[in-house]
Amino acid sequence: MSIDTSNTTTSSVLDQYAIKSQGSDVTKTQDLGKDQFLKLLVAQMNNQNPLEPQGNGEFIAQLAQFSTVEGITNLNTSVNSIMTGAQSAQALQASSLVGRTVILDTNTAMVDTSKTATEPFKGGINLTQSSDNVWVNVYNTSGQQVSRVNLGQQSSGLISFTWDGTDANGGALPPGAYKFEAQANVGGESVAFATSLPANVESVTLGQNGGEMMLNLTGKGSIALSKVQVVGQ
């Protein structure tokens, strides 16, 4: 008479890992790792019923499942390592940006007019068409035009302009936020063009879960790093 000991032996091995089966309810107090999986597989092979041995296909299926789980585990480890490295690089980049000036596509900027007499405010215009007359209107926070920068004839391309922080009569204007409106005479009509202006980086917010780094700029709030055209001094 043969005695099937597979259930008894497998149960004893399972008991080592606190796994109890009652009908469809399964309670697990400890995760079953790859080493424990292999021990259970070997125990199952050693204690199978010799009169009704388990088919090779079933063992192959279990091994294939084990290989898949192990591959996913290794992949997760590699991805976590890459993310950790990326976050470290992002943190290093962030620390180097604080206190520096960035250039971005905008029409407003904070201008310290107490320094513009010796260090004029600098901006840029993306002039997509050549013009015989280009100018930049400057407005205060009330929407009042306070100055105008005449640039004359210009070829298409990115051109620069400077403003000394004074009004139309040469009087000094107070520090603060100003709006810059670039226009050019094209075909007898006034056409508006985009301006690129500087802003100071006060702090940086690191992206979470792969999100983009955000720059906190003076007078402009939070701006994504991808919006920055140039990082200055």
UniProtKB/TrEMBL annotation:
<comment type="function">
    <text>Required for flagellar hook formation. May act as a scaffolding protein.</text>
</comment>
<comment type="similarity">
    <text>Belongs to the FlgD family.</text>
</comment>
<dbReference type="InterPro" id="IPR005648">
    <property type="entry name" value="FlgD"/>
</dbReference>
<dbReference type="Pfam" id="PF13860">
    <property type="entry name" value="FlgD_ig"/>
</dbReference>
<dbReference type="Pfam" id="PF13861">
    <property type="entry name" value="FLgD_tudor"/>
</dbReference>
<dbReference type="GO" id="GO:0044781">
    <property type="term" value="P:bacterial-type flagellum organization"/>
</dbReference>
<dbReference type="Pfam" id="PF03963">
    <property type="entry name" value="FlgD"/>
</dbReference>
<keyword id="KW-1005">Bacterial flagellum biogenesis</keyword>
<feature type="domain" description="FlgD/Vpr Ig-like">
    <location>
        <begin position="115"/>
        <end position="185"/>
    </location>
</feature>
<protein>
    <recommendedName>
        <fullName>Basal-body rod modification protein FlgD</fullName>
    </recommendedName>
</protein>
<dbReference type="InterPro" id="IPR025963">
    <property type="entry name" value="FLgD_Tudor"/>
</dbReference>
<feature type="domain" description="FlgD Tudor-like">
    <location>
        <begin position="90"/>
        <end position="229"/>
    </location>
</feature>
<dbReference type="InterPro" id="IPR025965">
    <property type="entry name" value="FlgD/Vpr_Ig-like"/>
</dbReference>
